[in-house]
Amino acid sequence: MKINGTSYRTIWLGADGRVVEIIDQTRLPHEFVTVGLTSLDDAAKAIKDMWVRGAPLIGATAAYGMALACLEDASDKGLARAYEVLHVTRPTAINLKWALDEMMAVLAPLAVKDRVDAAYGRAAEICDEDSEQNARLGAFGAKIIAEHHKAKGRTINILTHCNAGWLATVDWGTALAPIYKAFDAGIPVHVWVDETRPRNQGASLTARELNWHGVPHTVIADNTGGHLMQHGMVDLCIVGTDRTTRNGDVCNKIGTYLKALAAKDNNVPFYVGLPSPTIDWTVADGVKEIPIETRSAREQTHIFGKTEDGAVCEVQVTPDGSAAVNYGFDVTPARLVTGLITERGVCEASPEGLRGLFPERA
């Protein structure tokens, strides 16, 4: 992604090759601020407090968190502590555990003195792999958009939920990668951007990066999508996922399930973009088995915004004394998903579909 003419990934190493630089996404869309992570605790805080977010980027940050931990204590005890500190930061996104397991597989057999360089090397590889996977995923998804354009001969309207773009990954995005690839190929697209309460990742992050890239888009209230589908104003939905079961159930930001129900009722194709590390091959039933993160009620009762004089502040939107609950995710059953878009192609949301693309996991 280019910002003011400069290309950025969402995570990179500083000039010394050790400090891990990230974008503080809690400051978007009104401020672009980068932060340097210098310790295990910094990495854990960045994940837990959502300076970084999105399953692939959480995994990449966790990988570099293990590298930062090795600078402090590369012993077996230090690795075990780092794994646990990072693992508990966000319970739903499976990429977190996947990345930590990848790091441990490389580091555990090595002598302590060799672990720092190996940790930074594997973390860099995880970032490169994520970028490459999402670029390939985007190309497969762009073909779907191109087919819709060929059939309808007009701008294709795509609805997405939460942020599953560049900011949720190392580069390209998952749900937005097909949109960027199609747009760059000259296919006319327009994106309906769900605001995605309570943290407004759609309004603040998806809209921000679509704006940077020049993709036409319109921000809508979360409950508008069904109305748009009823009136033929949505050609397809593409969302991301924080964890997908081996049976094709999809766990994504709260509200995704309702979009899938509306899409099913109105015969609107509902696709999910996911790089393969987001598949949890140990889980079959998403509703029963995926842990759903419950976040602070303050995210529900308060909101950040910019005043007319340009100040960025937080305000309370609920009455004093009213209780609030903040479930971070919901599960969309495979029966509501038209197809899964991966770096190996598009498949149906089923055990057979996933095994067809990933036979080594059968």
UniProtKB/TrEMBL annotation:
**UniProt-annotated binding residues for substrate:** 53-55, 90, 201, 252-253
Kindly tell me the pathway this chain contributes to: Amino-acid biosynthesis; L-methionine biosynthesis via salvage pathway; L-methionine from S-methyl-5-thio-alpha-D-ribose 1-phosphate: step 1/6
Provide this UniProt record's keywords sorted from A to Z: Amino-acid biosynthesis, Isomerase, Methionine biosynthesis
Coiled-coil regions in this chain?
none
One MF term in the entry's GO annotations: S-methyl-5-thioribose-1-phosphate isomerase activity
Keyword Isomerase assigned to the entry: answer is: yes
Which InterPro entries is this protein grouped with? IF-2B-related, IF-M1Pi, IF_2B-like_C, Initiation_fac_2B_a/b/d, M1Pi_N, NagB/RpiA_transferase-like
Q: Give the annotated active site.
A: 242
Swiss-Prot/TrEMBL site (Transition state stabilizer) positions: 162
Cited Pfam families: IF-2B
Reaction(s) catalysed (UniProt annotation): 5-deoxy-alpha-D-ribose 1-phosphate = 5-deoxy-D-ribulose 1-phosphate; 5-(methylsulfanyl)-alpha-D-ribose 1-phosphate = 5-(methylsulfanyl)-D-ribulose 1-phosphate
Any GO BP annotation: L-methionine salvage from methylthioadenosine
Its EC number is 5.3.1.23
Q: What biological function has been recorded for the protein in this entry?
A: Catalyzes the interconversion of methylthioribose-1-phosphate (MTR-1-P) into methylthioribulose-1-phosphate (MTRu-1-P). Also catalyzes the interconversion of 5-deoxyribose 1-phosphate and 5-deoxyribulose 1-phosphate. Part of a bifunctional DHAP-shunt salvage pathway for SAM by-products.
NCBIfam families of this UniProt entry? eIF-2B_rel (TIGR00524), PRK05720.1 (NF004326), salvage_mtnA (TIGR00512)
Task: Spell out the family assignment given in the record's similarity comment.
Answer: Belongs to the EIF-2B alpha/beta/delta subunits family. MtnA subfamily.
Q: HAMAP family, alphabetically?
A: Salvage_MtnA
Name of this protein:
Methylthioribose-1-phosphate isomerase
